[in-house]
Automatic annotation (TrEMBL):
<comment type="pathway">
    <text>Organic acid metabolism; glycolate biosynthesis; glycolate from 2-phosphoglycolate: step 1/1.</text>
</comment>
<dbReference type="GO" id="GO:0005829">
    <property type="term" value="C:cytosol"/>
</dbReference>
<protein>
    <recommendedName>
        <fullName>phosphoglycolate phosphatase</fullName>
        <ecNumber>3.1.3.18</ecNumber>
    </recommendedName>
</protein>
<dbReference type="InterPro" id="IPR006439">
    <property type="entry name" value="HAD-SF_hydro_IA"/>
</dbReference>
<dbReference type="InterPro" id="IPR041492">
    <property type="entry name" value="HAD_2"/>
</dbReference>
<dbReference type="GO" id="GO:0006281">
    <property type="term" value="P:DNA repair"/>
</dbReference>
<keyword id="KW-0378">Hydrolase</keyword>
<dbReference type="Pfam" id="PF13419">
    <property type="entry name" value="HAD_2"/>
</dbReference>
<dbReference type="InterPro" id="IPR023198">
    <property type="entry name" value="PGP-like_dom2"/>
</dbReference>
<dbReference type="InterPro" id="IPR036412">
    <property type="entry name" value="HAD-like_sf"/>
</dbReference>
<dbReference type="InterPro" id="IPR023214">
    <property type="entry name" value="HAD_sf"/>
</dbReference>
<dbReference type="InterPro" id="IPR050155">
    <property type="entry name" value="HAD-like_hydrolase_sf"/>
</dbReference>
<dbReference type="GO" id="GO:0008967">
    <property type="term" value="F:phosphoglycolate phosphatase activity"/>
</dbReference>
<comment type="similarity">
    <text>Belongs to the HAD-like hydrolase superfamily. CbbY/CbbZ/Gph/YieH family.</text>
</comment>
Amino acid sequence: MRYQGVLFDLDGTLINSAQDMYIALNLTLTEVAFPIVSYAQVSTWVGNGIDMLVKRGLSGGIEINTELPQVLVDVAIATFKGHYKLLAGQYVNLYPNVVTGLAALSGFSKSVVTNKDRMFTEPLLERLKLTSHFEVLVCGDDGLKKPAAQPLLQACEKMGLKPHEVIMVGDSKSDILAAHNANIDVIALTYGYHQGVNLQEFNPQYLCDDFLDIIPILTQR
Ligand SMILES: O=C(O)COP(=O)(O)O
Ligand SMILES: [Mg+2]
């Protein structure tokens, strides 16, 4: 088998999770007296972790307003986390074929490498009955975030595999760039939160429209 391990992104790859973040963000923005934002906006802002999502919300766009006072940013992030702690998982669902696909990949060593903080990720995986599929979990607050290579390399090390023995599966520019930075092949899934960019431009080795399309890639010899 060409690959022995698979590193999965979480939000936008395994789970459709933007609705909880959309609600938590608008509750936060209302509390700090900033204009609320649309679901469509939030779904293009997911993928760089909570701090970036909140800063994008305060900026009203994907580009961060660098003049936002730090104290406001800190209060908004803490407020978001409070709301998200209560909301995370309420409106989340698995993307089609994820459970079937993970079961079909039972012979592979599998990890989740997410930019989401551990305190939110672990309960979400439990709630969705996904925990047992994965040997390793690397979260956004464990060290550097994607697009850094570090979280992917950390997962490889914990799995006892070399970068050329694994493949990353993700939905965003951050996943593709992190994989390139780590010299790991990458499958980009088109259905997730791709931050308003054309994923093809970032040259993933593979581009798939459905979770099950990753199976023939992984089982090739
Ligand atoms: O919290 C985020 O921004 C997204 O996390 P992800 O890395 O699982 O897509
Ligand atoms: Mg993602």
